[in-house]
């Protein structure tokens, strides 16, 4: 990451990275499939945390609450592992380079698949499991985005929880009910 | 798509496609940036439909209902434009080829961005607009998936609406409330 910041992502080669890390290129490719992958070294940890939290929760915990909570835990862990300056620099690279953004989208899709599997293993049915997993990814993406771009970032987990609360609120307002309520209030 | 089905996606070249369509390769590249893009020729229509429905809705329509409805309209339009055999063949190619799946994920991300912009233009605030857009993508993805894989597919819009209802139900069950309700029912 230091190298990417110094030279720019596009101007840094795998050779540069290997040299800085005191590795041969061959060793580099044992750990990473390509240059992009360096930016996603933490994604397996996030996936493991999410799956662990979901798998070990009390049996009757509602699926979405469970996944939302798992993302809060994973968010706190991510924040504990990385400096905010690293996170911001990484975010800038992902935003600027389409091919890195592609890799990010694929990682999120495989995260959704892992969450879906963990929910199915708990006996959650389909399409509930897939929808809860996608909703979890949505609150993580939006919470993360607001955290990275905040003037006073604070806790990532707080931003994720805020996104959960907003999503619940916007989902809980069907038009018919809202209109009926308004009408019945008027007629009183 | 005929060619992809006949020869396999991997074994079809841009030259083959241009020949079949009676075009020069140069003309092909005026319409499509690459081979993958042929599979996404309908994505601009979907985006335009979604944005139109969202932009022209009554001013007080709740954001998520609006987006869910826009996806039902876009789904019906998509179904009207393509044979189910085309849709299934395309789905198989996307599932089998990582680089096509990448393109699909990018198209969905730019769809989410367009929906977010249309909601912001209506005065919906952030992060509500982004979350509603992501939730819309979630119900579209899951609804589409179930439609393509159903034995009796029926209407895509019906599958999207079913996904909307399931997502609302799973989001509406916070653990405390669920438990309190169960307890108060017992104590009656």
Describe this structure in words.
The structure is a homodimer of 188-residue chains. By secondary structure, chain A is mainly alpha-helical. Chain A has helices at 2-7, 14-20, 25-31, 43-55, 63-81, 84-96, 98-121, 128-149, 156-171, 175-187. Chain A folds into two domains: 1-31, no CATH class; 36-172, Tetracycline Repressor, domain 2 (Orthogonal Bundle). Chain A is 74% helix and 0% strand. The model of chain A is unreliable at 176-188 (pLDDT under 50). The interface between A and B is large, with 37 and 38 residues.
Summarize the structure.
The structure is a homodimer of 188-residue chains. With 188 residues, the first copy, chain A, is mostly helical.
| CATH architectural designation of the largest domain in chain A | Orthogonal Bundle
Indicate the radius of gyration of chain A in whole angstroms: 20 Å
Q: Would you identify the CATH H-level superfamily of the largest domain in chain A?
A: Tetracycline Repressor, domain 2
Based on secondary structure, the structural category of chain A is mainly alpha
Whole-number average pLDDT of chain A? 87
The tally of beta strands of chain A, per DSSP, is 0
Provide the CATH topology of the largest domain in chain A: Tetracycline Repressor, domain 2
Q: What is the H/E string of chain A?
A: HHHHHHHHHH
Kindly report how far apart the N and C termini of chain A lie: 64 Å
Tally of separate domains of chain A: 2
């Amino acid at each position: 990451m230091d190298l990417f910041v110094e030279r720019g992502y596009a101007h840094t080669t795998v050779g540069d990275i290997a040299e800085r890390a005191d590795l041969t290129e061959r060793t580099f490719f044992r750990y990473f499939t390509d240059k992009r992958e360096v930016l996603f070294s933490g994604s397996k940890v996030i996936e493991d945390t999410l799956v662990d939290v979901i798998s070990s929760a009390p049996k009757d915990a509602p699926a979405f609450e469970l996944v939302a909570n798992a993302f809060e835990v994973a968010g706190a862990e991510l924040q504990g592992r990385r400096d905010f300056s690293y996170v911001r620099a990484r975010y800038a690279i992902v935003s600027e380079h389409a091919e890195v953004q592609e890799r990010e989208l694929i990682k999120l899709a495989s995260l959704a698949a892992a969450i879906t599997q963990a929910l199915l293993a708990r006996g959650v049915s389909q399409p509930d499991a897939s929808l809860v997993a996608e909703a979890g990814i949505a609150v993580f993406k939006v919470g993360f985005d607001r955290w990275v771009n905040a003037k006073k970032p604070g806790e990532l987990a707080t931003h994720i929880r805020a996104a959960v609360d907003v999503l619940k609120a916007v989902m809980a307002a069907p038009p018919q009910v809202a209109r009926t309520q308004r009408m019945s209030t008027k007629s009183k």
